[in-house]
Amino acid sequence: xxxxxxxxxxxxxxxxxxxxxxxxxxxxxxxxxxEPQPQPADELDAEAVRTWSSLAVxxxxxxxEDIDAINVYPVADADTGTNLYLTAESADRAxxxxxxxxxxxxxATAAGPASGAVAPSLPQAVRAYAHGAxxxxxxxxxxxxxxxxxxxxxxxxxxxxxxxxGRLLAQALTRAAEEAYQxxxxxxxxxxxxVAAAAARAGEAAAGPAGTAADVARAAYDGARAALADTPGQxxxxxxAGVVDAxxxxxxxxxxxxxxxxxxxxxxxxxxxxxxxxVPLPPQPCDAEEQGGPGYEVIYLxxxxxxxxxxxxxxxxxxxxxxxxVGGDGLWNVHVHVDDPGAAVEAGVIxxxxxxxxxxxxxxxxxxxxxxxxxxxVVAVVPGExxxxxxxxxxxxxxxxxxxxxxxxxxxxxxxRRAHAREVVLLPGGADQRAAAAAAAERARxxxxxxxxxxxxxxxxxxxxxxxxxxxxxxxxxVVAMTAAAGATRYGELAVAERQSFTxxxxxQAGDVLGLIDGDVAVIGSGLTETAEAVLKxxxxxxxxxxxxxxxxxxxxxxxxxxxxxxxQGHLAxxxxxxxxxxxxxxxxxxxx
Length: 593
Hints:
Elements lengths: L15 E2 L28 H24 L10 H19 L6 H7 L10 H15 L2 H18 L8 H19 L8 H16 L5 H18 L5 H6 L4 H18 L24 H4 L4 E8 L2 H12 L2 E9 L2 E8 L2 H11 L1 E9 H9 L3 E9 L2 H9 L3 E4 L8 H10 L2 E7 L6 H13 L3 E4 L5 H9 L7 H13 L2 E8 L3 E3 L2 E3 L4 E5 L2 E6 L2 H13 L5 E6 L5 H14 L4 E6 L7 E5 L1
Parallel strand pairs: 6-7, 6-8, 8-9, 15-16
Antiparallel strand pairs: 1-10, 2-4, 2-5, 3-4, 10-13, 10-17, 11-12, 13-14, 15-17
Helix pairs in contact: 1-2, 1-4, 1-10, 2-4, 2-5, 4-5, 5-6, 6-7, 6-8, 7-8, 7-10, 8-10, 12-13, 16-17, 18-19, 20-21
């Protein structure tokens, strides 16, 4: 869904804008823009953590494709680099909020970078950083990275007790490795766990009586690089493919960022790139059954007490493999590979309250990674990078629509080709994209691809359609079900007026928050929260069972919590789910099913 266009009739304001969208590299998606500045050699404080986070996101962004390309263990699904990058990005966003992001998008637009805000302490910063990784962890590698950061926070979040920065950091890296091993049900050597342990040992050796934090970080980085180079000899799958461990490669990038943050010296680029030896990957079976492993990856956040989580570990361990449960203090991130995803989710319900549930089928992911055709695929136009990642996890091929841009027929036709499917369901995401979608469908049909265009008018309608997509059913029945789900979803949106204009809800002034329902301005407010509540009140007036909230990149999580509480107070039977739209997304999208 592209950004709202200038008014073509009485229902829309003259100009809408999305606040403070940064057109630069993806690493700059944060509520508070920050240019990393190297720290003095022995400076270990909140600013060092912020710099580390920024550099880690940038390093993983550069290495993402290379790491994806060498992903052969535990599942050859070519997503380890992407998962690590998205996990680090979630951690970075949470840290930025802890450093004092404005509470309102309009304030962020007017004020720019926060000024006069009191920086948090080191314990506050590392805890926010670890929490952000926990709630945004993706895949096996991202979940382990989240636990590594939690281990770091467990040490740096306490009083130093006379320990110098070097000793403190060494102990943090040791705790991180220990907690990561404990989080994995069946640890395997030759993975990022091995790399983390080697980094910790090297850091401890460098700490000594006078080692600085930079000394420890450098030693940990060097130890991790050496351990990474040894992984092909420790794990048969890596040795056969002639590659180093993908997760370990990502961890080296993160440790290199830590050293750079503390020393100002840039790590060697080759340490986080590509293959250990330049040989092509061997052909990989495209189905989980052919590889001898479960067919689905299940990930969810879980609110539960620790005793219940211990029982959950045992139950999930009997259902599949690659089990990793990280977190603590009542909030956990659960990751497991299973053949019965329903049973894995049900186990979470027994233990507590699972949410943000993501289920990925490995077979289609492997086929796409190999360039082979699948029977059916979904192509979705989405208005934010977070939504693109979300739809991608559900198996869709995505086309990113930036504000003010409408994907053309050639771009959509290319996305259909990239889906490598005999049958394609196309979700255009906006009325202004239907003509291009129809033209792209005609081109694909000429190439022998069966294409159906579902007339979705918002990204939330696309999410509803994707939720009922059945790739194993008949094409016609699948299209009917997805069309019905999209049509049953009312959609709302918040945007900000750039200048005075006439709307269907009255005259708006520059800076007003506009609440749109089904494409027309229905509410004019001064703040995000009050306007969103007014929009929800109107949308739920005609009933509903599920509210979907998609937050823009600069909108704090507190807004989602307030809106969830608002829905629960007035509509006890209505569930609420929240997603991050990511860069280029509107401040808020609302769906009511």
